[in-house]
Amino acid sequence: MSRAIQKRTPLRTPVRFEDAQNVGTLLAGSRSAETRRSYASAMRTFTTWCQGRGYPSIPTGPEVVASYIAHRAEQVAHSTISRDVAAISAAHLDNGHDNPAAHHGVRQALRSAGRTLGTAPCRRAAPLTTTLMRQIIDAMEDLETATGKRDRAILLIGLAAAQRRSEIAALTTNDIARQDAGLLLRIRRSKTDQTGRGDLIGIPLGAHPETCPVLALEAWLEASGRRLGDGTPVFSRIYNHSRIANAALSDRSIARIIQARAAAAGISGKDYAHTAGVAQTWVSGHSLRAGHATSAAEEGVDPMTISRTTRHRRLDSLARYVRPANAFEDSTAGKIGL
């Protein structure tokens, strides 16, 4: 057989321990922390299922993965199954094994599950619109405390800039600049910007002092002793309602604050499910971002303009918020003479 067509296995060249460590550190950052947590959870569930049936989990074959898809199709949504398959794929590739999820039978099983279950989401974050935000702010009885000032700033900055909870948590005072018209806010990295290209968002002064994000942030900075440009985290923990820590809040803490403040105002988000056409809606860390898109759509702002603030790369992703708000304006039913 000609050497030109022989299957070649690349030679492995030993590298120094410190070089291997550097490569390991580099590869550890190839996925976001949230993705790593999600994949780890998916693999724990898959491994437990495999152990119960005597199947190997890593490495495993496409027959096992297809069987797991059939099993999960009786329990969870298609989006969860897709996440499971992505986690199994990543675990195999990361460990140098063939990817069982690339097999035609596995792809067919996943598509079949999508047809059976439907690919539309069954759950969605309820939008905290401007109207609901006023209700939340009005219900806050601790606005003169450090905790109240911090939470109001989180809510209003997050809504104004259409931020994800991770983006709010990652903000430092170096990311914000004060201008005569308001604030310039730089989002250094996001879910759709993993390489850190960055986006710049303008936050104008609000029309109402009680819900002005610029004034809310300034009040919190003054209470916390921070100043723009000093490099500290914008939002941090507060101990005993008075002692302000230096460490940044986690993204999960941001979500809990949003949920707690909405609940205190009597807002659960459950009543949005019928409008959204899904089985379940609730207030989450994504509700501020959803609220910005929905509020802008209700005011007649076109989707392209909204996407420049929300930073949606695809308009069909934005449409899930815009369509319910513009359902009557977009409909031609009123223009056909009925």
From TrEMBL:
<dbReference type="GO" id="GO:0015074">
    <property type="term" value="P:DNA integration"/>
</dbReference>
<dbReference type="InterPro" id="IPR011010">
    <property type="entry name" value="DNA_brk_join_enz"/>
</dbReference>
<keyword id="KW-0233">DNA recombination</keyword>
<feature type="domain" description="Tyr recombinase">
    <location>
        <begin position="123"/>
        <end position="334"/>
    </location>
</feature>
<keyword id="KW-0238">DNA-binding</keyword>
<dbReference type="InterPro" id="IPR013762">
    <property type="entry name" value="Integrase-like_cat_sf"/>
</dbReference>
<dbReference type="GO" id="GO:0003677">
    <property type="term" value="F:DNA binding"/>
</dbReference>
<dbReference type="Pfam" id="PF00589">
    <property type="entry name" value="Phage_integrase"/>
</dbReference>
<dbReference type="InterPro" id="IPR002104">
    <property type="entry name" value="Integrase_catalytic"/>
</dbReference>
<dbReference type="InterPro" id="IPR052925">
    <property type="entry name" value="Phage_Integrase-like_Recomb"/>
</dbReference>
<protein>
    <recommendedName>
        <fullName>Tyr recombinase domain-containing protein</fullName>
    </recommendedName>
</protein>
<dbReference type="GO" id="GO:0006310">
    <property type="term" value="P:DNA recombination"/>
</dbReference>
<dbReference type="InterPro" id="IPR010998">
    <property type="entry name" value="Integrase_recombinase_N"/>
</dbReference>
